[in-house]
Amino acid sequence: MKRNVYLKLKGLDEAKKSFSCFLEHRTRTEEIPADESLGRVTAEPIFAKRSSPAYHSAAMDGIAVRAEKTYGTTEISPSTMTLDRDAVWINTGQAIPEGYDAVIMIEQVHQLDDNTIELRSPAYPWQHIRKVGEDIVATQLLLPQNHMIRPYDMGALISAGILVLKVRKKPKVAIIPSGSELVQLKELKDSDQLKNNQIIESNSATLAGLVRESHSEPIVYDIVPDEEDKLREILKKAVNSKADLIIINAGSSAGSKDYTANIIAELGEVFVHGVAMMPGKPTILGAIKGKPVVGNPGYTVSSVLSFDQFVRPVLHSMQGVPPPCPQTIQVVPSRNIPSKMGIEEFLRVHIGKVGDRTVATPLSRGAGTITTLTKAEGILRIPALSEGVTHEEEVRAEILVNEDEILNTLVIIGSHDITIDILADEIRRKGNNIRISSGNVGSLGGLLALGKGLCHMAGSHLLDTTTGEYNLSYINRYLKGVDITIINLVMRDQGLMVAKGNPKGITGINDLKRDGITFINRQPGSGTRVLFDYRLEQAGIHPDSIQGYQHEEFTHMAVAADVKSKAADCGMGIFAAAKALDLDFIPVVKEQYDLIVPTRFLDLSNIKVLLETIKTKNFKDRVTALGGYDPAHSGDFGKKL
Description:
Layout: H1 12-18, E1 29-33, E2 46-47, E3 57-58, E4 62-65, E5 79-82, E6 87-90, E7 102-105, E8 109-111, E9 116-119, E10 129-130, E11 141-143, H2 151-159, E12 164-168, E13 172-177, E14 182-183, E15 199-200, H3 203-213, E16 217-220, H4 228-239, E17 245-249, H5 260-267, E18 269-273, E19 277-278, E20 284-288, E21 291-296, H6 300-318, E22 328-333, E23 337-338, E24 344-354, E25 357-362, H7 371-375, E26 378-382, E27 388-389, E28 395-399, H8 403-407, E29 409-414, H9 418-429, E30 435-440, H10 443-451, E31 457-460, H11 472-478, E32 484-498, E33 519-522, H12 527-539, E34 552-553, H13 556-564, E35 570-574, H14 575-580, E36 584-598, H15 605-614, H16 617-626, E37 629-630, E38 637-640
Helix pairs in contact: 3-6, 4-5, 9-15, 9-16
């Protein structure tokens, strides 16, 4: 089969317009009980059948009286009444007996004996009485059509005598996962059963959740292998089913085994194949027998963003309601963010309030990194006609969390360390509603961000190769004039990570210049890179003699993953990362990892919680269990600069 190509990418707005023919579709209707109508959408206007209250009723506990008989009553000249003749006891909600027209609160009634009460103030007609129809009058419009029913709407419906009502049927969405490398969750007892080159199919669970969020019903099919005939067969079956919309997940790109676009075109019509958005470029929009069909990209983030832009609006429109409007907030990027002209980019970001600015820290751009969605507080949309944004301009970002959570976010930018994740979890474990936004740009990048006021603190382990001290000279150089406090987070073991069993027989840095050994480096400005370059200089080794020196990663775990996957034979990193991925470790140095904090932030309540947590036994025990860490001085204040 020929390889598909994107002959012409459509812009996001143009692609939406191509699919807009489905924005006026409506699903069929059904009748359901009023007490089961939460989240459903009314298919017709609903008029009250009964008034509420349906009778005059007491609004207070007390006595029912004839108002005119209380006229002239005062504190000085109280009046007395005989129970069951002039007044009757009554409770809230009870019908007012015939002939009575006012209720006096029980707190204002003085009982003289079993039959006699005394009043010290008069009543007026209809005092503390709910009249017929005070809330709802029979025949009035209760709810319009295309209204999504809320919990209190259900109470109003039942109060008005509406026991059943017509609503729009929930749209049914067929989800067809495709890919020969995929394994269904229900076929596994645990993930250890996976064979090489197999992946647990997870996108259908994500898509089904998004469908339910859109008040619709998912129908998840079994995985279809990358075989044209089988995909065609299952697509025909879905089109002829009761599904209102069909999603084929994966198989939408320009690969030679991506049959989706051709099959949709064969059975129906393709409106769009390729959208100028990132992630989400491979999206296919089409129709078969009048039903919308979406070729949804296989990478998880692409899949989610494609759903949000194209599927969610259609599902809401089928129910006669608009999709939710995203909440936005003004932010300043923590660094310059270049972007490709002609492509609208959806960049996942951490968001936190630092001083009087709200800072957005970019997460990984990878279309397959679902953790960028689980960790993100927001999404920064970079327009197609922009080449990016700078750290000096304010832009709007869609927020994925409550705004209160952004105010309770601590922004830490700098060197990566696993203990920051442990610290974040410990803070939450103790019941504190504090999030930690961690941006991994290297120690030097963290100090520069701190100097620009873009974070609350920086993680740093920069070695001064002249003095042997950590961080001090760099702070003096890059944070002049800023009152800084240094807090030790941990001491940790840095060294060379190698495959289990050390098959290349690497014993130290000198071995890295041997033929047949590939190295994976850290980015310039990171403390690990500074240390590694210093050790090379000490050993008289030129970087050009090390195969892979120019290949860089931004975290210790990324380096460890490269070694684990055999993309490299060796990388510099911390012992805890090597242990986590069951690698061997060759120690090089025990180094100091500090948190660099502007002194003016130390009085912030969230910072105080963080500093208290670092000193706890639970945090130190968890850090020790990781291996390669010494928390003996965790939380200790170093020099104040």
